[in-house]
Each structure stands twice: as C-alpha cells, then as structure tokens.
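Write out the 3D structure for:
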Amino acid sequence: MRDGYHSLDRGLGRQAAGLELVIVLATLTLVAALGPPEAVERSDWIAFGVLLPLAAVAHLLGADRTKHQGSQLSLAPIFTAVLILPPSLTTLLIALAVIPESLRRRTDWYILVFNVCNLVAPALLARAVFDATGRFHNPAHAREWSDPSLEAAFEGVWSLVLRGLGARGAST
C-alpha cells in the first residue's frame, strides 16, 4: 500500500456520490409513480423471464476476462432483449443482469450505476435506430418498397440517424 492511502480515499467524493444517489432515487421514484412508458404485454414478461438468467450468467462469464475486456457472449442476450423487449424491460433486464457480478466483486454502488448506464444507453440507441429504420427493413412494409419516394425518405432518415450518432462525413 502507498503511504497515506486509505480505502476511504478511493471512489467518489461525498458530494458527487450524494448527487448521484439523489438522481438514482429520483429516477426510481418517478418510474414507480408513473409506471412503464409503454404497454408491457404478458409475452414480453415471459421473454424477460427467459432472457434475464441468460443475461446474468453471460455477464458473470464475461466478467472473468482479464483487463475488463468482457466477452462478446455477455452482449448476446442484451442484443436479443433490444430486438424483442420494450425499452423499459430492456433497461430493467440490463440493470438486474449486472447485479450478480457486482455483488460477487463487491462493486461500489456508483460504479454499478455507471456500468448499467454504459450498457443501457447504447442498447436504447440501437433500439431507436432499429425503430426509425423499421419501415425500410421490416417485411411488413414490403408493399411500400416499390414506392419511388421511399429512397428519398430512407436517405432523410439515414442522414438524420448518422448526424444524430455523430458520424463524420455523413451526407446531408
């Protein structure tokens, strides 16, 4: 141990930890008071119940990699959740799936929150892109694909997606 180093010296300062705790508690309170932002069907809960243990085990296995490299395996259930679950259940699945590994490692709560956000944000962004472009890849819209104005609509959506993601050199 270094001179003057104590376990209390690591981590967030009290004010930063307090602010993060207030934000987390306020968010949980709002979600509990307002309910999920979209309707959640029984089939969504069944899929959630199947995916949650898979995601937790995959995350545990991926966490054993060296240098925090993780395993692509831990992303597979999250990718599946993004495609088949409503965003609120995807967020809940990710939050619950990382808890076993965090308990095993005794991760500080604010690091757990950061790790959840680090997985949730890209997952929800991927879902938003998937939803925005659904008209162009979902076979339910196949009749529209012969519409001559569809290419211009696609270019508009694709340009917006690229600019929104901050891609360099995106066409306008």
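Residues 65 and 71 are 7 Å apart (CA to CA).
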